[in-house]
Amino acid sequence: LQEVGEPFKEEKAVAKYLRFNCPTKSTNMMGHRVDYFIASKAVDCLLDSKWAKAKKGEEALFTNRESVVDYCNRLLKKQFFHRALKVMKTKPDKDAKKEKEKGKAESGKEEEKKSKKESGKDEKTKKEKEKKKDGDKEEGKKDETPGTPKKKETKRKFKLEPHEDQIFLDGNEVYVWIYDPVHFKTFAMGLVLVIAVIAATLFPLWPAEMRVGVYYLSVGAGCFVASILLLAVARCILFLIIWLITGGRHHFWFLPNLTADVGFIDSFRPLYTHEYKGPKADLKKEEKSESKKQQKYDSEEKSDSEKKEEDDGKTEATRNLGTEGSGGERHSDTDSDRREDDRSQHSSGNGNDFEMITKEELEQQTDEGDCEEEEEDSESRPSHEKS
C-alpha cells in the first residue's frame, strides 16, 4: 500500500537527482514532446550518487545494481516514469518506388550524356580523362587515411509507444519521464525577473541619485546601440564607394564581423579585410590551376615511366635467366663432347678399344687372311724361280 501511495521525501530526492543528472534525450510520443532515459545509465548514475556511500552508523541505500533496480521499480510504480517501446519508422512503399524510378531515370540520362560525349571527342581527350580519373582515384585513396573524418552515418528514426509490461529492467530499455520538477536555476531566474519588473514599476519611488544613475545608464546604452547601427551603415557605404571607384576590383570591408553571429569581442576582429578581384587575380588563379594540373600529369607520367621501367627490368631478368640456362646447357654439352674426345684419343693411343664381333665376321676375316697369304706366296714363288 505504501508503494502505491504518495512518494516519500527520500524517493522524491532520488527521483530529482536522477532527473537532472541522468543523461536524457527528447522525442515525440503520442503527439507530445517527452524526455526519456536508458535504464543502464540510470543505474550507473545512482551507483555514483551519495546514496551509494555508507554514512556513519548507517548502511548505503544502493550497494549493487540489483538494489538500484528494486528501488527504481518502486519509483516506476509511483509514476515518476513509465516504460516505453522503441518502434523503428519505415518508409512507405510508394516513396521507395518513386526513389527507385528517379534513380533509374537519372542513371539513364547520365549514360546517354556520357555516350554522346565519348563519341564526339578524340582519342587524346579520352586519354586525358583517364589520367584525370586515375589522379582523382589516387587523391581519394590518400583522403581515406585513418586521420581523416568518415562520412556521417544516417540515423534511423524511431518513435516511442507505451509498453504493456511496466517493469524496470537493467539494460537498454527506454523509460519516459513523467516527473518534471523545476530546476533551481530556472526558479532563481524567474525570481530575479519578477523582482526587476516590480522594481521598474516602482521607479518613481526610487531615490533621486538612483534615478539619475539609471537615466545615464540608459542613455549610454542607447548611444552604444545607435553607434553600432551607424557603423554598420557606414561600412556598407564605404564598401560601395570603393567598389564603384575601382570598378568592382577592390573589395574593402571595415569591421567585417560587426553584424556576424559571433561574440562581442570577435565582432570587432579583424579591423578590416581587403580583396583584389581583377584580371591579375584571375590569371594567378588560372596559373595555379594549370600548375596543379601539370603536377598531376607529371606525376602520372612518372608513374607510367616507372611501370615501363619495371616491366623492362622484369623482361631483361627473364631473358638473362634464359640465356644463362642455355649457356649452361651449351657449356655442359661442350664439356661432355670434350670428355668423349679425350677418352677416344686416350683409348686409341693405348690400343685398348674393345668391339663386339660376330662369328661370321670372324670367319670372313680369317678367309681374307688366308687369301692374302696365298697371294704373298704366289708373288714370292716367281721371284725364287727367276733367281
**CATH level-3 fold name of one domain:** Arc Repressor Mutant, subunit A
Q: What characterizes the major β-sheet? A: 5 strands, antiparallel
What is the 3D shape? Answer: flat
Share of helix among residues? 55-70%
Q: Averaged pLDDT, please?
A: 75
Number of strands: 7
CATH superfamily placement of one domain: Winged helix-like DNA-binding domain superfamily/Winged helix DNA-binding domain
CATH architecture of one domain: Orthogonal Bundle
Order of helices and strands: HEEHHEHHEEHHEEHH
Strand proportion: 5-15%
Number of helices: 9
| Cα-to-Cα separation, first versus last residue | 173 Å
Strand order of the largest sheet: 1-2-5-3-4
Subcellular location: Endoplasmic reticulum membrane
Membrane topology: Multi-pass membrane protein
Protein name: Translocation protein SEC62
Family: Belongs to the SEC62 family.
